[in-house]
Each structure stands twice: as structure tokens, then as C-alpha cells.
């Protein structure tokens, strides 16, 4: 018999037990990453992200685990449901709290239900949904949302009656390139010249780039990078970023082998940086910032340096983060992302399902149009 348990923090389960399910391929569900979020108070407290992680046990054996949060807002999710919350409000119904299974502030697709060896998602799907429904009722939560799962899991949950939402991101794929020039050779002449010019302009401004593994980054440089990260949020939205100084320091201490920090220097001063997280076959571009504007530095630091790294290390894919149509011109291909939504109220569930069906058609049309705008000479 499978027994479900919800925990108020990731430290309630031993790191070895959690990581035995998480494996090493996908870094964002490692115990160390989730601990850094909680220990730094980037989640928990008054953040609106209350840890509420789910464990599934058969007897004493841990067979499944899933990150889960009780949410009282929709910030930091990258799957936008503000209009749903507003519809609830206009009809006098509470939308918050809601349950959410995701990696906070990280729109990177990957596993969500961690499984013991030999088990597949279908083996525990019924137990998972029963536990979530029971907990929703106990908490008075309006809904449960599973963000950025892998496509097969999204398909299975859609077949079980959950709402299925899609979105588009832009990912770069390594097709066995020898070097950056080999990658450029596939591009149309005009686009190839554009990328070469962008890289050349960075050098002409006297900027030097260094790619540092996490083991090479000291506390002072983590603090400097945190300053860059905060500047990015301040410029975009007028408020600070979700992640604090302690998070970056803790991450640098607990999983440095998974981190790549690309810094740009001008006259020996570090003026910009981009932080990447390294998976088994994928590079994830996560955070970036700079002290002042330099022509094309964002593209060099956040995209071209990541492509260089993937080619050097033989990584298959580069996920440079959410949104960004400008990535198309730089060879990043449109791919579908997925989320699943369990809505308790039958009237709202029907309305949201209708919306999602129409939205999926529009998203697929957009993905095809974006793919047609790729800069390659031939279809890839």
C-alpha cells in the first residue's frame, strides 16, 4: 500500500534518500539545489512559496518524491495564470492558496515526480493524484499545477483529465559541431555575418570573457554576480530579484561542479556575468546582469559562450531560459513546453479547459511560424 506524506521542508528528508530518486542528470531537483532555496529564505517565510513537498512510500521504502509548494500568489512561475485568479476574484471565489509542483523561479523542463529505480510514472500516477486531491481538500486549495514536466508525463495527466497547457521556448541543439565556426556554416550568409559582427564588437570594446567552473568562484565573486542579478531585475521591473545573496553562496558551496559562471571584464574590472547550470546532456542558462550597457554583450555572455561550452563539452542541448524571440536569429529552435492543471471547481475547470484547447492551437501555429524564421540555409 502506498502512503503519501507532505513535508514542510526539504531537510525533513535525508539528502541521500531524496537524491537516490533524483539521480544526477537534472540538477534542479537535487537536494542541494532545493536546500539552497530554503536555507537562504528565497522560498519559505513571507516569500509566498511555502514548501510542502510530497513523499510516496511503500512501507518504509521511499518510492516517489515531488517538490511541492503552497502558493499565495503567482510570481516566479513563468506559466501565467493571473487571469484565472482574476476570474475567481470577480466571481467571489478564492484562487489562493493553490498547490504548485515546480522548481521555484526555474522554467526548465524536466522530471517532476522522482521515482525509485524500476518504476514508471504510470505506476504511481493514481496514488499521486489521490494524494494531491486529498491535500487540496484539506487545505482548501483551489487547484494544483504541475509546471514544466516532460512531455510524456504531461500527456498521461492530460489523458487522466487534467488541463494541459503548452508554451514555447527557444533551445539550441548541438549537431556534432566541431566549433562555433562549424555551427555558423549552416547559417544563411547574412545571418552568419551578423553573428560574427556581434562577437567582434564585444572584443572591440575591450571586453574579455572568462568561463569559470563553480570551483573557481570565490565568495566575493558570487556577491559581485548577485549585484549584477539584482540590477537586471531592477531595470526590468523596478524591484529586486527573487534570489538573495545567500542563495548564490550556498549553491556555490553545495554543487560547484554543476555551475558555470561566465564573466566579462573591462580594464580588469568584472562588469557582467551569466550563470549556467550543467546537466547530464543539457546546459541551462539561468541568470545574468551587468553594471552598464555594452553593445552585444548580453548575446555574447548568455548565448554564444553557452554554445561554445556545449560544443567543447559535447552537450546535446542548450536551454537558455524562457521567452526571447531574439534567440531565433541566433539559431535557437522553438520547442513546446508543458504544464498540467487540476482545477477543483467544476465550472471554472470547464471554462479553463476550453481556453486551453484554443490556446494550444494558437501556440502550435506560433511554433511553426517561428521555426520557419530560423536562420539556417536548410531545414534542421
Mean pLDDT: 96
- CATH fourth-tier homologous superfamily of the largest domain: Gcn5-related N-acetyltransferase (GNAT)
Helix count equals: 11
Radius of gyration: 21 Å
Count the domains: 2
Helical content band? 25-40%
Q: What would you say the CATH architecture of the largest domain is?
A: 3-Layer(aba) Sandwich
State the total count of DSSP E strands. 15
Order of H and E elements: EHHEEEEHEEHEHEHHEHHEEEHEEH
Secondary structure elements and their pairing?
Blueprint (H helix, E strand, L loop, with lengths): L1 E6 L7 H8 L8 H9 L9 E3 L1 E6 L2 E6 L2 E3 L10 H9 L7 E4 L12 E2 L5 H19 L3 E5 L3 H9 L3 E11 L6 H5 L4 H16 L2 E7 L5 H19 L7 H10 L4 E8 L2 E10 L3 E9 L6 H17 L3 E3 L13 E11 L2 H27 L8
Parallel strand pairs: 6-8, 13-14
Antiparallel strand pairs: 1-3, 2-5, 3-4, 4-7, 5-6, 8-15, 9-14, 9-15, 10-11, 11-12, 12-13
Task: Provide a descriptive summary of the structure in words.
This protein has 380 residues and is an alpha+beta fold. It has two domains: 2-167 and 335-372, Gcn5-related N-acetyltransferase (GNAT) (Aminopeptidase), CATH 3.40.630; 175-315, Gcn5-related N-acetyltransferase (GNAT) (Aminopeptidase, 3-Layer(aba) Sandwich), CATH 3.40.630.30. It has eleven helices and 15 strands. The protein has helices at 15-22, 31-39, 82-90, 121-139, 151-159, 180-184, 189-204, 219-237, 245-254, 297-313, 346-372, and strands spanning 2-7, 49-51, 53-58, 61-66, 69-71, 98-101, 114-115, 143-147, 163-173, 207-213, 259-266, 269-278, 282-290, 317-319, 333-343. An eleven-stranded mixed beta sheet has the order 2-5-6-8-15-9-14-13-12-11-10, sandwiched between helices. Strands 1-3-4-7 form a four-stranded antiparallel beta sheet, with helices on both faces. The longest helix is centred in the last third of the chain and has 27 residues, at 346-372. The radius of gyration is 21 Å and the shape is globular.
Amino acid at each position: 500500500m502506498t502512503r503519501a506524506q507532505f513535508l514542510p521542508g526539504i531537510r525533513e528528508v535525508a539528502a541521500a534518500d531524496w537524491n537516490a530518486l533524483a539521480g544526477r542528470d537534472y540538477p534542479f531537483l537535487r537536494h542541494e539545489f532545493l536546500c539552497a532555496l530554503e536555507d537562504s529564505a528565497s522560498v519559505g517565510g513571507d516569500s509566498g512559496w511555502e514548501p510542502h513537498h510530497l513523499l510516496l512510500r511503500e512501507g518504509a521504502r521511499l518510492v516517489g518524491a515531488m517538490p511541492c509548494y503552497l502558493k499565495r500568489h503567482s510570481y516566479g512561475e513563468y506559466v501565467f495564470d493571473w487571469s484565472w485568479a482574476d476570474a475567481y476574484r470577480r466571481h467571489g471565489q478564492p484562487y489562493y492558496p493553490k498547490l504548485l509542483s515546480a522548481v521555484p523561479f526555474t522554467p526548465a523542463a524536466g522530471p517532476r515526480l522522482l521515482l525509485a529505480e524500476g518504476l514508471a510514472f504510470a505506476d504511481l500516477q493514481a496514488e499521486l493524484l489521490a494524494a494531491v486531491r486529498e491535500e487540496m481538500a484539506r487545505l482548501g486549495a483551489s487547484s494544483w499545477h504541475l509546471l514544466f514536466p516532460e512531455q510524456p508525463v504531461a500527456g498521461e495527466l492530460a489523458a487522466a483529465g487534467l488541463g494541459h497547457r503548452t508554451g514555447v521556448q527557444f533551445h539550441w541543439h548541438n549537431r556534432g559541431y566541431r566549433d562555433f565556426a562549424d555551427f555558423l556554416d549552416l547559417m544563411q550568409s547574412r545571418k552568419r555575418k551578423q553573428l560574427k559582427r556581434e562577437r567582434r564588437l564585444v572584443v572591440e570594446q575591450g571586453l574579455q570573457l572568462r568561463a569559470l567552473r563553480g570551483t573557481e568562484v570565490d565568495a566575493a565573486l558570487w556577491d559581485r554576480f548577485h549585484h549584477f542579478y539584482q540590477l537586471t531585475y531592477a531595470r526590468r521591473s523596478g524591484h529586486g530579484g527573487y534570489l538573495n545573496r545567500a542563495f548564490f553562496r550556498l549553491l556555490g558551496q553545495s554543487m560547484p561542479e554543476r555551475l558555470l559562471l561566465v564573466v566579462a571584464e573591462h580594464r580588469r574590472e568584472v562588469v557582467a556575468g551569466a550563470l549556467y547550470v550543467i546537466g547530464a546532456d543539457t546546459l541551462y542558462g539561468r541568470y545574468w546582469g551587468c553594471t552598464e550597457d555594452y553593445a552585444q554583450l548580453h548575446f555574447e555572455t548568455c548565448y554564444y559562450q553557452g554554445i561554445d561550452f556545449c560544443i567543447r563539452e559535447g552537450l546535446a542541448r542548450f536551454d537558455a531560459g524562457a521567452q526571447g524571440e531574439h534567440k531565433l536569429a541566433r539559431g535557437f529552435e522553438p520547442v513546446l513546453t508543458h504544464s498540467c492543471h487540476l482545477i477543483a471547481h467544476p465550472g471554472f475547470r470547464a471554462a479553463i479547459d476550453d481556453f486551453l484547447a484554443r490556446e494550444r492551437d494558437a501556440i502550435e501555429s506560433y511554433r511553426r511560424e517561428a521555426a520557419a524564421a530560423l536562420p539556417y540555409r536548410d531545414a534542421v
